[in-house]
Amino acid sequence: MRTCHEIALRRGRYSASGQLYHITTCTHERRPLFANATCARLVIGHMRNLHDDRRLSSLAWVLMPDHLHWLFALGEGATLSGVVKRFKGRSAAGLRPATGPGPVWQRGFHDHALRHDEDVQAIARYIVANPLRAGLVGRVGDYPWWDAVWL
């Protein structure tokens, strides 16, 4: 059964090849699964697979202990919901030995389709600075689970 919040998250969602999207998705019950380096590396590997398969072109991301911020351009023929569903499904299956049974990710995700007038690099800086704002590190470069194409 879908909640009103899930339906609201989907309202107005569209997919366009080449469109830039900033998505945020959280672990189930905000469990800090990615404080574990093995789990973090596994999830990052699944993100890279989507990039390598050209379903998207990853621009910037940060994997926080309990959520992911990801900026990417949607690949030709891919849908936003399809890409996120594939990522969450495959990463959850890979994480299952470490997490045990039950959900890994919260249902749904938040997305923002960037407008042409938005500063993409400013959004990328905002994304990769999340660990700094959360007080996890004193410098962005000290946090291990992030990347941006501008480096």
Automatic annotation (TrEMBL):
It holds the Pfam family Y1_Tnp. GO terms for molecular function: sequence-specific DNA binding; transposase activity. GO terms for biological process: DNA transposition. It comes from the Bacteria. InterPro entries: RAYT_transposase (IPR052715), Transposase_17 (IPR002686), Transposase_17_sf (IPR036515). Residues 16-130 form the Transposase IS200-like domain. PANTHER family: REP-ASSOCIATED TYROSINE TRANSPOSASE (PTHR36966:SF1). This is Transposase.
